[in-house]
Amino acid sequence: MPEYAALITPAAAEFAGILRGIGESEFTARTPCADYDVRALLNHLLYWGPWLEAAGRKASPPESATGEAEAGLVGDDWLDALEKQTARLAEVFGTPQAWEGQTAFGGSQMPASMAGYMVLDEFVFHGWDLAKATGAEFAVLPEVADAVHAIALEIGEQARAMKVYGEEVVVAEGATTFERALGATGRNPGWTS
């Protein structure tokens, strides 16, 4: 939804702050994403970021000779590369136009709003994943929590079918909106390494 465009910049800022706190010694730390340690999650972000940027610009997706697992994108300049990528994504998806109409992603057409959802999810949920893995504090604005919760409910069934979200986790009665959003994506809000 184009109204979510205004939430991209604050979500990106919190995400970038988490990135700056990650040290190389934490690359092997487990994350709430069972398939990823910190290094693999950073690689995931670096791999898919250009695809999301192209989707937001309604441009041709990048060509890739390797899959995500083989890409090996976490080099000495990973932080600079990921900060610049985050800034570009925030610039693109911070405009309502990026959320409107149709776009291409992963070889198929989809509503452009889905690409926007993915960017907001990457910043917020993967930001939380990295924060939990490294012991950092993660702050979510109430309006961002409301948005990612609404997104998780809207696309949850499809995302679980595509293995993007895990099975829903039941959260405690009285859980915050963000904790409910985490549960809807298959994350345990109380996860510890």
TrEMBL record:
UniProt cross-references to InterPro entries, sorted A to Z: CHP03086, DinB/YfiT-like, Maleyloyr_isom, MDMPI_metal-binding
Pfam families reported in the protein's UniProt record: MDMPI_N
GO molecular function: metal ion binding
Domain Mycothiol-dependent maleylpyruvate isomerase metal-binding span(s) in chain numbering: 10-131
Top-level taxon in the UniProt lineage: Bacteria
Gene3D superfamilies with a match to the protein in the record: dinb family like domain
Protein name as catalogued: TIGR03086 family protein
